[in-house]
Amino acid sequence: MSAAVLFDLDGTLIDHRAAAAGALRTSLGYSGSIDPVELADLELRWFSLERSHMDVFLAGECTFVEQRRRRLRAFLPELGVAPGSESELDAWFAGYARTYQANWAPYGDVEACLAELLTSDSAPKLGVLTNGDHEQQCAKIDRCNLRKYFTDVLVSEDLGYAKPARECFAEACRRLKVAPEDTVYVGDTVKVDAQAATAAGLCGVWLDRQGTKSDEYQPRIESLAEVPALVAGG
To answer: CA angle, corner 163, sides to 162 and 165, nearest 5?
Structure first.
């Protein structure tokens, strides 16, 4: 049995993409009048901007609020909307964020997995290791009533390092007081989660929720229901 299991948050425990897509549709006033293809393209563009500007924030090159503004400055003109002042950008994003937060929900396989791990013989320590803003990421855990399962919730903003940096995983293990080689890390991206964790000395597990099998990386799972047996075997 592994000494600890760390989980990524968005895309692993919390369905960020569904929450964000729903919030975007609400913010755009979608009522079925927008062409579905156009809407899909807008969602792809929104998530692309989210990823690129979050990377800038994680690199320490701007604040969390500023990365939001930068996303809107790039996105709104594509809708034919002038970005406006910082206060106007903040107001637009506040409306989006309210719906996004209301949509936060764990995937259906989360609680059963965590409960099984904690009731197993020699139950491992459980933790969350996620990139992002401390306040927002912890709010997701609390809103979804998942805090009770975890020894610690570790956010890159507090650690001083962001995934995929080796130091991020090393610091997380240090805080949990476990050795990297005795720790499993489960995440939904190959490079940032699974490969990076393995490079840092952990057992990185790729959670391929879409069943894409698009990468040869192993171990690969398609549901968190597979984690307890994998951890017991480790």
So the answer is: 85
